[in-house]
Specification:
Distance between the termini: 42 Å
Structural class: alpha+beta
Helix content: 40-55%
Radius of gyration: 34 Å
Shape: elongated
Oligomer: single chain
Length: 798
Amino acid sequence: MDTFARNLRHAVRALLRAPAFSLTVIVTLALGIGANSAVFSAINAVLLKPLPFPQAGQLVRLKQTSLQGVGQNVAPVRLEDWNERTATFQAMTGYLTQDVSDTSGDLPERLRLASVAPRFLDVWRVAPALGRGFVPADHQPSAAPVALISNRYWQRRFRSDPNVVGSAMPIGASTYTLAGVMPASFTYPDANVDVWVAYVGMPTNRNSAFLQGFGRLKPGVTVEQAQAELSVLQAQLAEQFPDTDRNVAVEVTAFKESIVGSARESLWLVFGAVSVLLLIACTNIAALLLSRASHRRQEVALRLALGSSRAAIAARVLTETALLAVVGAALGLTLALAGAGALRAFAAGFPRIDELAVDWSVLLYGLAAIVGVTLAAGLAPALRSARGAETARVAQAGRGHVSGRHSLQWTFVGVQVALSVALLAGAGLLIRSFDKLSHVDAGFDPKGVLTFRVSGSYAELNQFARMVQGVEGMLDALRAIPGVESAGTSSPVPGVLNDSSGMQFGAQQFKLADGGDAEMSADLRVVSSGYFAALRVPIVAGGDCPRQLDTPAPGRLPDVVVNRSFEHLFAGRTLLGRDIALPNGGASRIVGVAGDTRDLGLGREPVPTVYQCGTVSAYPALAFLARTSGDPAALVGAIRQRFKEIEPARSIYDVRTLEERIGGEYVQDRLRTTLLVLFGGAALALVCLGIYGTLSYVVSLRRREVGLRVALGAPQGNIVAQFLLKAMRVVAIACAAGLVLAFVFGWSLSGMLFGVSPSDPVTLAAVVSVVVVVAALAAFVPALRASRIDPMEALREE
């Protein structure tokens, strides 16, 4: 302990004597450890921490899929079949959400309502904080409607009144008995849910698939075992119900994986990049410490001569490094707090990002970083300082020592250059990819299109004509507002892969009703009249969707428009006017052929698509789209006022431009691109510092030699060239190694790139050019300083 305290006091005095050196190392470490800790806090919150449910590892998500692998929601009757026959699950349940209105205020207020199947709270193992939960009798057709409300809504609407349980609560056209208040921690299926109600009278139609399904496994059962069992059960149902289940499969996914799986690749990529940045910082600091150790060689030689052991010398150097690491880490963790807040704001679309916090696990990670940095940056300088034979020789040589090899310092510089080339190459590829994605032709024009949703209820489907006329009336009112050029509805929103508030129909099987053709797979979307005009999608044959005001005849469904890709499936066949059989029974007439559009996202090629004209199949999950002649945001007030006049019981919500919705799909792309650019820029700055510091150190050691050469008439240009070539030779070799790393890094990014090869020569050439130019500038300054050494002053120093 006494030895450690003595080393610590010595380290403090030594570092205070070199404030510029100490500050440089501390700031470098603070940025490296701070950025690393902030990204680790995101990894910890999103990927490592368990979900906030009891035995969360037992929770799984259930999807009903086609045999082609396209995921869908689950039919309630099929979910019940699985639940009754399973031996691996404790229970299965499901839910669907809709948006209704609270009309108790001046303006209708949106309420997110979740209708839940039996066993909902049992699967989550959660109980209301006040009142009771759902019981099996609540789901019977004869049951009185009951509801649970969120803690947030209880505080806002009922001012935390503990006597609210048992009171009547109007929701839409129905009145519910308020059975209980959920805990503040329960926010499933999302944080916006205000009310949970018991779904009453589950439909028995096996083609009616609308529930989001999930379940809880029995202890010790794996996801793979559950998948195998449900696959067998569904095969048995296919034999029992061949008309409806022959093309149905089941997919079981760990619930946590279904939530965070999309973010996993991006987060680990960013973490790998920031870890490389920390490694570059460590090599930079190691080079600085080696230079400092060389300047202190006489001190070290004297200590050895006085009896100090090499282990004691190494311990002192490591203590100095550890002290720098502790101070840098403390400052870095402070920066990590700010970085975590910035990540929460910038990565708002990431799952679980609101749980991000700098907690004890991040502090432990910071402690591990201190140890790692101390060893990575301080071990080589410590061992070099403890080499007694060499330091004794140096002490005897004194200032007459004019040369020597500095291969270790230059090796560290080379490592920095190689790693920075790889980082910058990755950033360059992502920039090029994002640029190409932003300029892709979507097949429709999102500029100037305002989108929003209007609250509605599935109960309105029982009054088909009234519901359809209501939607058409809202569209007519929208089109009549000054500044609105055209309007329509769509579900899901075009250009958005994951429209959480819309119906996800996925790929369906279609065939011509009168031709006996084989079934063709195509995407199904529901749109209204005016949809194609609002998006400026060209109709290449036939006409637009007609207005749907009348109830279709028995066996008939609303007309459809198909796209060019769908038409190509029937090459040489005329589709206009022909009937097409839809997968849920019934036939529709093809009234038009539209141009191809990237409905599933800008990064995905157009797929064969069938647009069903109408609203009933997707109501109430409709998005209204209004093309405006000016700024879309300027019309929001007028739209709200007009809808209040014609539909006072409905609320307007989720108001965004179509460009904003599409841009929201690429939060991860923007985050990883931005962070890699920042990390690459920081790495390049550290490379500059490393080259400048190392070459300055070499120049300082060779002052006498350079002074003699200048005195003997050596041209300044030759001296500049000699030092410059020394640095650039290292840079050239490191760039070659960096290109190898860049190829490997590029291929790991291949799944994230759009329109760019992982070995894109333009990007790699640009990166190498930038690194070489920046490195040359960093080396030129100390090389020029060497050429201006005063010979007499250099000789007098000896």
